[in-house]
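for the writeup, i need someone to sanity check this before i put it in the appendix. the sequnce is what the collaborator sent (i think, or maybe the updated version? ugh). structure was predicted straight from it, no edits. if anything looks off just tell me and ill rerun, i have time this weekend
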Amino acid sequence: MKALVVEEHGSLENLKLGELPEPVVRPGDVLIDVKAASVNFPDLLVIAGTYQKLPKRPFAPGKDFSGVVAAVGAGVRDLKVGDRVMAQAEYGAYATRAAIPSGQCSVMPDAMSFAEAAAIGLVYTTAHLALVERAALKPGDKVLVNGAAGGVGLAAVQLAKAKGATVVASVSTEEKAQVAREAGADFVVRTDVPDLREGFRQQVFEAIGPQGVDIIVDPVGGDVFDASLRTIAWSGRLVIVGFAAGRIPEVKAGLLLVKNISLIGLQASDYRDRDTAKLRAVHQDIFALYSTGKVKPLIMGTFPLAQYQDALRTVQARKVLGKVVILMDEYR
């Protein structure tokens, strides 16, 4: 099958468009003809060899895709050949076929395109788990979303609004601010201010008051994490999703104690591997919100598989608003 192949970790130049053996369909698996795969920041870490989980080489990277079920393994009862599905996997999305456990995919709504499903899958699942499962979001909560124009951030803005929260979006440019507003953010604060430590808190308090925010969803880390922690309310919850800024922050435990703050980690892939029932329930809720028009992914661009370098470099350069999607149809 045609695939993007990692034979040696390193720069994006090490990734090649080549061939890999057809996937083996084991009992409990489904074989999927991949139609679209989204590009996520962790994919770049996998290619570079710096991610916490690395497959045996050679392999096709990619954690997030959609397609059509081509075959089902022994024991699979919940999916059938021809089903249109959204799926997440540890790797293998950047290929024309993938075989994964059936519990890691869900049947898409009829109105959802393959590109939309690929763009929704990982980031909306992550945002939903952060807000609902980990932070116990309630209607009326005040939610701060960092990196609000990126994949997880934009999903978190839409989902928090759909579930009755007041949303403060933090971004670094006016272009990103406009995207966050269009996604439903009630207030937008900027991280490109001269004194981030004081300026960030001042903006948030001017927006929603000095009591602070109940929930913070942070896929950024670094200085933005440090500044946003100073805006959290008593008994607030901060969900750590990632470290796109590069620096992993450290927190003084005394601050957590005196403000009753909950600092919560989220590794979304653990739900995929440990609790597929929860994963599918999250997918169904996202699909319901999509079908009623309350969430919709922003796809900045779609690229044919042959233009994979352009797709990946767009994400690497942090120029993405929403999502970038790779399409596989040219190789059918």
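Residues 114-134 form the longest helix (21 residues). The chain has a mean pLDDT of 95.
thx in advance!!
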